[in-house]
Specification:
By secondary structure, the chain is an all-alpha fold. It folds into 2 domains: about 80 residues, Orthogonal Bundle (434 Repressor (Amino-terminal Domain)); about 35 residues, no CATH class. The chain contains 7 helices and no strands. The chain is elongated, with a radius of gyration of 20 Å. The relative contact order is 0.13.
Length: about 120
């Protein structure tokens, strides 16, 4: 059941969750599933009708790759740099991320390489 009056903090947190979720192109359903909450609850939270527990704030931050201050204070900038996103990845996945980045760099190098012309001797 929705509260009769929205609390300002719930509105702020909800707006910020929606902003960063949309910024990375994630659907509400996907975020809800990854956090372990229902899409309806997430929708109510994004609209400021309900508050979000600290446990779920932490999970949302981990999934979105943002710091909690991004959700709790007014937005000062909308960009999320790569180092912030990577800081939320558990250490046991760092090697996998490094391997994926290296592979992407190799693919970029191949894609941007000048075409080689065949020479006849």
């Amino acid at each position: 059941m929705r509260a009769k009056e929205k609390k300002q903090i719930n509105i702020l947190v909800g707006d910020n969750i929606r902003f960063y979720r949309e910024k990375i192109g994630m659907s509400r359903e996907t975020l809800a599933e990854l956090v372990g909450i229902s899409p309806r609850f997430l929708a109510d939270a994004e609209l400021g009708f309900v508050g979000v527990s600290l446990t779920n704030i932490k999970k949302i931050c981990e999934v979105l790759g943002v710091s909690a201050d991004r959700l709790l204070w007014e937005q000062t900038e909308g960009t999320i740099d790569l180092s912030e996103r990577l800081s939320h990845i558990p250490p046991e996945y760092h090697h996998l991320i490094e391997t994926l980045i290296q592979t992407q760099l190799e693919l970029l190098a191949l894609a941007t390489r000048e075409p080689q012309t065949k020479t006849r001797h």
